[in-house]
Amino acid sequence: MRSAPGDAGVVTGGREEAPVILDVELPALRHYGQGMAKKEKTNAARILDREAIRYELRDYEVDENDLSAPHVAEAIGMPPEQVFKTLVARGDRTGVLMACIPANTELDLKALAGASGNKKVELVAVKEVLGLTGYIRGGVSPVGTRKPYPLYLDETAILWDVISVSAGVRGCQMLLAPDDLARVVNAQLVAIAK
Hints:
The chain is α+β, with helices and mostly antiparallel strands. It is 21% helix and 29% strand. It has one domain: YbaK/aminoacyl-tRNA synthetase-associated domain (YbaK protein, Alpha-Beta Complex). The longest helix is centred in the first third of the chain and has 8 residues, at 43-50. The protein is globular.
């Protein structure tokens, strides 16, 4: 089930290089080109740079009528099992927390409650997401939130050499190794998807 993303044109140091095919030995590359017309790096990308984590940014056309994670997976050419959506929840004991699960799954609130030491966990209202994370719906990244909330990453992430998560804006995904994501945000790997 392990897979690597397809071709990507790479721009480094302001010059464009030939497309590189990623493989299992090289799970991701920095990528700032391919239709990004001098787009500024997101806070999440700057954090990965600071931590010397290898990643790729992949743009896609935003459909305001369909911000779903399966649609994003299709738009960036990856299977939905490899594209992870970030959800913001609140536990009755621990407060705000975040969960990353595959695009084609639903969050198991009971499993998340158990893993996080809560009796009950509920998703926060969409109107609260921006204030809590600094990100808008459809662009919530697990990296670079306003406060460092506990992050629970579904254990299926480790089945892949590379997973995709939001780069912190609609229309841009970050591809990186799940181990690197877990390390940079101190995520716990748990079974929370159904």
